[in-house]
């Protein structure tokens, strides 16, 4: 079924609307523990696995196997992945000592581009894990303040950027166990970090919709901007996440009120899509692997696909298409299917274009 949408330029474009399960292929992957939410999701760089960080600090890794139905062994909704477990039943588990309870924790994780090491925090210390053995290599930076986001340096996996709850940004050398630089500029907790190898910069964002561009040469602040709604009105205070396009020159900024694509060399907003009165707030969003699409999830369970260049709406997936009718059998007590929505989303680095979303209750879907 198609619906008609109106763009700012008053052009009429066809938007595909998906309502029925038969219109797409969905695979549900379940952590196996009730009442434990999936807080963060990332695909492995090889495209053969999904890493999930649960709200209790435990990480789960699923991998697809090579078989006749999946010769490449890469992520697909056509075949179930296998939960990877060590012989000793060891799980990669974060240190939660000192972590706050409730919704104050901002879980975060980052994977090296060779899929060998995982950096993660869930309100407590930052932990470095060996993904092959699941063993904890080292833990550091005990709260307070708590770590809120992590990003690996684009040239050196021993260097990470660490966003803090107290609004500071630290450049940390893991091998030397030393904070090399402390960057000051934000006034609210850091909620997003992204490196650009092409421009040799770091972009950070915070809970007040402020975005700062830092030079990796000397870690000097180049410029600072605030997300604004069209017409210059400041956006509402909201956790803002940033992600670079695969060209490493443009970046996506997302909070609950809007999607915006910026040119990191200026930076100025190239395109913007603002949540209207008829739309639920945005819960999460990400670029597709080639940057041609932006996948965005909303708190009413809707998933929308936007053009990655101009943010024109191209497709809307309603929750009825991917939430199975028998889902209530797997949900915690007193939680209905109408309360389910994605709180985290990941796009694979491969060109097969599957996406994976983790909902606010424990099942995880793969589209």
Structural features, described:
The chain is mainly beta. The chain is built from 1 helix and 32 strands. Strands 1-2-29-28-27-26 form a 6-stranded mixed beta sheet. A hairpin with a 6-residue loop joins strand 12 and strand 13.
Which geometry do the CA atoms define? globular
Number of strands: 32
- Structural category is mainly beta
The percent range for helix content is: under 10%
Head-to-tail CA distance between termini: 19 Å
Protein name: Protein TOPLESS
Organism: Melia azedarach (Chinaberry tree)
How is the topology of this model organized?
Layout: E1 2-6, E2 12-18, E3 27-29, E4 38-43, E5 49-54, E6 59-63, E7 82-83, E8 108-111, E9 117-121, E10 126-130, E11 136-140, E12 147-152, E13 159-164, E14 169-173, E15 178-183, E16 190-196, E17 201-206, E18 210-215, E19 221-226, E20 228-229, E21 233-234, E22 241-244, E23 250-255, E24 258-263, E25 268-274, E26 282-287, E27 293-298, E28 303-307, E29 313-317, H1 319-322, E30 342-347, E31 355-359, E32 364-366
Parallel strand pairs: 2-29
Antiparallel strand pairs: 1-2, 3-32, 4-5, 5-6, 6-7, 8-9, 9-10, 10-11, 12-13, 13-14, 14-15, 16-17, 17-18, 18-19, 20-21, 22-23, 23-24, 24-25, 26-27, 27-28, 28-29, 30-31, 31-32
């Amino acid at each position: 079924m198609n619906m008609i949408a109106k763009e700012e330029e008053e052009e009429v474009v066809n938007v595909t609307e998906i309502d029925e399960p038969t219109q797409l292929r969905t695979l549900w992957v379940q952590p196996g523990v009730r009442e434990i939410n999936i807080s963060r999701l990332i695909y492995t760089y090889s495209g053969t696995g999904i890493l999930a960080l649960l709200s209790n600090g435990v990480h789960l890794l699923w991998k697809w196997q090579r078989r006749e139905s999946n010769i490449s062994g890469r992520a697909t909704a056509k075949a179930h992945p296998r939960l990877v477990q060590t012989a000793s039943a060891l799980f990669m588990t974060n240190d939660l000592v000192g972590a706050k309870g409730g919704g104050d924790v901002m879980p975060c994780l980052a994977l090296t581009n060779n899929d060998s090491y995982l950096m993660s925090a869930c309100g407590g210390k930052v932990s470095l894990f060996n993904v092959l053995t699941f063993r904890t290599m080292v833990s550091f930076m005990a709260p307070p303040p708590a770590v809120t986001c992590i990003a690996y340096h684009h040239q050196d996996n021993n260097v990470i950027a660490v966003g803090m709850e107290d609004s500071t940004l630290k450049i940390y050398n893991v091998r030397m166990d030393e904070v090399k630089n402390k960057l000051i500029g934000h006034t609210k907790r850091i909620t997003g970090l992204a490196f650009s190898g092409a421009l040799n910069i770091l972009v950070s964002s915070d809970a007040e919709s402020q975005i700062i561009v830092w030079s990796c040469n000397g870690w000097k602040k180049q410029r600072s901007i605030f997300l604004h709604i069209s017409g210059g009105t400041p956006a509402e205070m909201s956790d803002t996440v940033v992600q670079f396009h695969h060209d490493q020159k443009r970046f996506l900024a997302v909070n609950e009120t809007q999607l915006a694509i910026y040119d990191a060399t200026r930076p100025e907003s190239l395109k913007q899509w603002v949540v209207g009165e008829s739309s639920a707030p945005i819960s999460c969003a990400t670029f597709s692997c080639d940057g041609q699409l932006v996948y965005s999830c909303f708190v009413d369970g809707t998933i929308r696909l936007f053009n990655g260049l101009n943010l024109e709406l191209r497709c809307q997936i309603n929750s009825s298409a991917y939430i199975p009718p028998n889902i209530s059998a797997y949900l915690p007590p007193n939680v209905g299917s109408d309360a389910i929505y994605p709180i985290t989303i990941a796009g694979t680095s491969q060109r097969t274009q599957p996406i994976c979303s983790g909902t606010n209750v424990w099942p995880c879907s793969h589209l």
